[in-house]
């Protein structure tokens, strides 16, 4: 077989493998973000994606491996939902957080709830926390104290205000509307930014 034909077939095979992987990830994303972790079944994901469970395992090794891959898969979408924020713009930051949490907040909160007993989840959540902290630092750098210890305390305060748990408390547990939730988050974030200057 000519080299060009072998190269074409190899590229087509690789593209097919990637399409299968993305199809599995798309189904898995929907399941992980709408069901409790223990209710997610690999066989059901495989069937919905049109592959065997063994094919799914060949790609992702385990349920935990699949979830970690889903976290990586949705990361660009999460970043897109937050959108670019002009540093210091509280309103834009809140709008971005609300877009993210309205799309993924319920699933995120469910995963956090079971992370203690599933090490792979704990690792994925830690990656998310690191990214969220970096976003806060980039978005509100000018308001943060210069001293390292004070800066860490300030970031912790901003994190507590903007965490998915705060959104869940307001939006789900207290039943506030999206508009009210955004208003409260904005007020809390503004107050936190004012207070961190004195940490």
From TrEMBL:
InterPro entries in alphabetical order: Homeodomain-like_sf, HTH-type_TetR-like_transc_reg, HTH_TetR
Start and end residues of each HTH tetR-type domain: 18-78
DNA-binding region boundaries: 41-60
Entry's transmembrane regions: none
The entry's keywords: DNA-binding, Transcription, Transcription regulation
Protein name, as recorded: HTH tetR-type domain-containing protein
Species whose genome carries this gene: Blastococcus jejuensis
Taxon lineage: Bacteria, Bacillati, Actinomycetota, Actinomycetes, Geodermatophilales
């Amino acid at each position: 077989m000519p080299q060009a034909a072998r190269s074409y077939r190899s590229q087509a095979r690789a593209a097919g493998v990637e399409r299968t992987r993305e199809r599995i990830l798309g189904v898995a994303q929907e399941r992980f973000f709408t069901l409790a972790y223990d209710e997610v079944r690999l066989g059901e994901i495989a069937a919905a994606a049109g592959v065997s469970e063994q094919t799914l395992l060949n790609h992702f090794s385990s349920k935990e491996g699949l979830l970690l891959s889903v976290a990586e898969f949705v990361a660009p979408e999460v970043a897109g939902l937050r959108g670019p924020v002009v540093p210091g713009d509280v309103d834009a930051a809140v709008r971005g957080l609300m877009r993210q949490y309205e799309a993924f907040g319920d699933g995120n909160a469910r995963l956090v709830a079971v992370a203690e007993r599933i090490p792979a989840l704990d690792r994925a959540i830690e990656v998310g926390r690191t990214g969220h902290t970096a976003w806060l630092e980039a978005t509100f750098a000018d308001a943060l104290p210069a001293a390292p210890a004070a800066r860490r305390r300030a970031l912790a305060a901003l994190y507590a205000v903007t965490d998915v748990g705060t959104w869940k408390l307001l939006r789900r547990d207290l039943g506030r509307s999206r508009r009210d939730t955004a208003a409260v988050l904005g007020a809390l974030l503004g107050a936190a930014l004012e207070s961190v200057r004195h940490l």
